[in-house]
Design a protein that fits this description.
The chain starts with a strand and ends in a 5-residue tail after the last helix. The strands form three sheets. A nine-stranded mixed β-sheet has the order 4-1-5-6-13-12-11-8-9, with helices on both faces. The protein has seven helices and 13 strands. The relative contact order is 0.16. The longest helix has 17 residues. The protein is about 25% helix and about 20% strand.
Length: about 260
């Protein structure tokens, strides 16, 4: 059975927290674990490894068949050479560095990577790209990409790139709705990345793929949050199945011979 690593989110030490006071906590959101399980794969949280530990990050990655970079705190502008425009957009530079190293090591081991929301932004930054720190501030004419009240029930249309892998997965869908829960977005596209979808009509990049021998793909929306009964939304399972199929084939090709 496939083992899919999910990069952890961070609760950094908080002296005002009533439990685990002053401690760092690692976590993943349950919908992501359940989505991975729905594809017949095991979901494993990947935490950072303590420096000088006998277990190294590459050892953990060696045991995994693929990586999901999922949502959470903002990517820090410092991670792409900029200064936060506001203190609340400072993001999580510690998590950025951890996930950039994860992303690069999975690519080095030729194992597939799927980015979700923050994961798409992180992948772009890891490849030398930049972000809009806040869509309403920098693109005031854009659609509403994040609504705190409706949250994952905030929807907008997307347009798929012709002849892209994404269009191959959705051959009858030139424009469909997705959920939108982000206030940052890809600005300058990173090196060797191709855009595969844009929000319509404002043109914000919604999906990217790395030109690589391995699978490195990311979407700005949250397929793991979608209600499967809502037929107006782009189905989430083809994305997951494409990722897991690559992981499965790679595992079979690298299986030891007897």
């Amino acid at each position: 059975m496939l083992k899919i690593g999910i990069s952890c989110c961070f609760f950094h030490p908080d002296p005002h927290r009533s439990i685990f006071k002053g401690k760092t906590l690692y976590y993943i959101e349950q919908s992501m674990a359940h989505w991975v399980n729905s594809g017949g794969a095991l979901a494993w949280m990947i935490p950072p490894v303590k420096p000088h530990s006998p277990i190294q990050q590459r050892d953990l990655i060696h045991e995994m068949d693929g990586l999901i970079l999922h949502g959470g705190a903002d990517v820090s502008p410092k991670s792409y050479g900029q200064t936060p425009l506001r203190p609340e957009w400072a993001g999580d530079e510690i998590r950025d560095q951890f996930e950039i190293e994860l992303f690069r090591e999975f690519l080095a081991q030729q194992k597939p990577v799927l980015g979700i929301c923050r994961g798409a932004q992180l992948m772009n930054v890891a490849c030398g790209g930049t972000l809009y720190q806040d869509i309403p501030t920098e693109l005031p004419e854009a659609l509403t990409h994040r609504d705190g009240e409706s949250y994952d029930k905030n929807f907008h249309p997307i347009r798929l790139a012709p002849h892209s892998r994404l269009q191959e997965l959705y051959p009858q869908c030139n424009s469909l709705q997705i959920n939108s829960v982000h206030h940052q977005a890809i600005k300058k596209l990173g090196n060797h990345l191709q855009a595969e979808a844009w929000s319509d009509p404002d043109g914000i990049i919604e999906a990217i793929r790395l030109e690589s021998n391995t699978f490195a793909f990311a979407v700005q929306w949250h397929p793991e949050f979608q209600d499967p009964l809502n037929t107006s939304l782009l189905k989430s399972q083809p994305l997951l199945e494409d990722f897991l199929d690559f992981a499965r084939k790679r595992k079979e090709n690298h299986a030891p011979s007897h």
